[in-house]
Design goal:
heterodimer; A: Ubiquitin-like (UB roll); Ubiquitin-like (UB roll); 11 helices; 36% helix; B: globular; Atg8-family ligase activity (chain B); acetylation (chain B); autophagy (chain B)
Chain lengths: 278, 136
């Protein structure tokens, strides 16, 4: 358990340096804003950490012509409801650091992004994904047996970057023995194509085979992206989660317990390898 | 009737598709406001590219006469919500929440196919719709 805690803590402390710049065409004032730098937790969500970015940038845009703030990386609008680490693994994996993002207040891409009116929207999204994860692991029994204050503890632990507070409750959701053993592994695969569009894949995968053998990451991918694994094309992809490329022999259940995001899902990105890349 | 028979009866050819219902509607109305749902480019004309969903009201949401619909796997939750709103004559500005397992609300950009794979049973996916946040 001591070793587990070290890994969980390491994952929790993963951070990404980000440089925010206001979109050039949206600068309304004579003076141009300085870029804004932040070290953001991988496990958090952009709307929870960008209050200061908003305050810094809003002074430079047309006060009569702006809407909700949204972020973009190299033409790709960033979905606020994905954890920051997932967005970075998906789009910024090969980017230099700091990760350079563009801040927008105009032309909200309605087709691609959901609106985020306030932090309550992030909370209700987060809780919903958490419930879905528990529906897969424990038929929802772990989360339903909690009190409302436990839910609040999880949320404020995440929002305020308090590891011990979050895990004091999350450990019940991660219970994996006897009656409470995981039924299925909550995971989402983000399969990116060359055009940088991606599809999200979610399937039912049990932690172990009927033979009692642990299901590995490779097995999980066999189920989730059968086309790729049948054609032997998996090695054309980086399999990335939490910024690392785990061995395909890693047991999926170990990953679920140690590498899941706070929403209790494994978010695994498949990024095409660039030609000539070793 | 056994579950098997019930399933077979339900999957007869007469199950209406959302797409057909929407097409019929846009034929009968000439307004340009009907939201055309862009069909995803990944949709293939395969027999397994569609799944059956069962729509049930929760709270004070009105009942739909037709509960069972066939939808493309690539259809998003938001698309199904838009369809229900039109069907039960809600204003586009009103919100509608869709729940799985009467417990969680998938985000609007979630594809029906993946929810069906994880939470469908007996060949169909039950979705509860509600005008206020019913669960959670």
């Amino acid at each position: 358990m001591a070793e587990d805690r070290e890994i969980l803590k390491e994952i929790w402390e993963g951070k990404i340096p980000v440089c925010f710049e206001l979109a050039n065409e949206e600068i309304y004032t004579v003076e141009h804003p300085d870029p804004f730098f932040l070290l953001v937790p991988r496990l958090s969500y952009f709307p929870l950490v960008t209050d200061k970015v908003f305050k810094h940038m809003i002074k430079y845009v047309d006060p009569d012509n702006h809407s909700e703030m949204w972020l973009e990386y190299e033409g790709q609008p960033l979905r606020w409801h994905y954890p920051i680490g997932v967005l970075f693994d998906l789009y910024g994996h090969q980017s230099e650091l700091p990760w350079k993002l563009t801040v927008h207040f105009q032309n909200f891409p309605e087709d691609e992004l959901l609106h985020c009116p306030n932090k309550d929207a992030v909370e209700s999204h987060f809780m919903s994904v958490l419930k879905e994860a528990d529906a897969l692991k424990h038929r929802g029994q772990a989360i339903n047996s909690m009190q409302r204050k436990d839910h609040k503890t999880l949320w404020s632990g995440l929002m305020n970057d308090k590891f011990d507070q979050f895990w004091s409750v999350n450990k019940k959701l991660m219970e994996n023995s006897g009656e409470e053993a995981f039924k299925y592994i909550p995971f989402r695969i983000y399969l990116t194509s060359k055009s940088s569009e991606h599809v999200v894949i979610q399937k039912l995968v049990k932690p172990s085979e009927d033979t009692g053998e642990n299901v590995t990451l490779r097995h999980l991918l066999d189920v989730a992206v059968p086309d790729l694994s049948e054609k032997g094309e998996l090695d054309k992809y980086h399999v990335v989660t939490q910024g690392i490329e785990p061995l395909l022999e890693t047991p999926a259940v170990w990953m679920s317990e140690h590498l899941s995001y706070p929403d209790n899902f494994l978010h695994i990105c498949l990024i095409p390898r660039v030609e000539n890349e070793s | 009737m056994s579950e098997k028979e019930e399933r077979d009866n339900e999957s007869d050819v007469s199950t209406p598709t959302l797409a057909a219902a929407e097409a019929a509607e846009s034929d009968s109305k000439t307004t340009s406001e009907s939201p055309k749902l862009p069909s995803s480019p990944v949709v293939k004309q395969k027999s397994n590219s569609k799944v059956d969903i069962l729509l049930k009201p929760a709270g004070d949401a009105p009942i739909m006469k037709k509960k069972k619909w066939t939808v493309e796997r690539s259809r998003k939750i938001a698309g199904v919500a838009e369809f229900i709103k039109k069907f039960i004559k809600m204003e586009p500005s009103e919100s509608l929440f869709l729940y799985v397992n009467q417990s969680f609300a998938p985000s609007p950009d979630t594809e029906i196919g993946s929810i069906f794979d994880c939470f469908g049973s007996d060949g169909k996916l039950v979705l509860h719709y509600c005008r206020t946040q019913a669960w959670g």
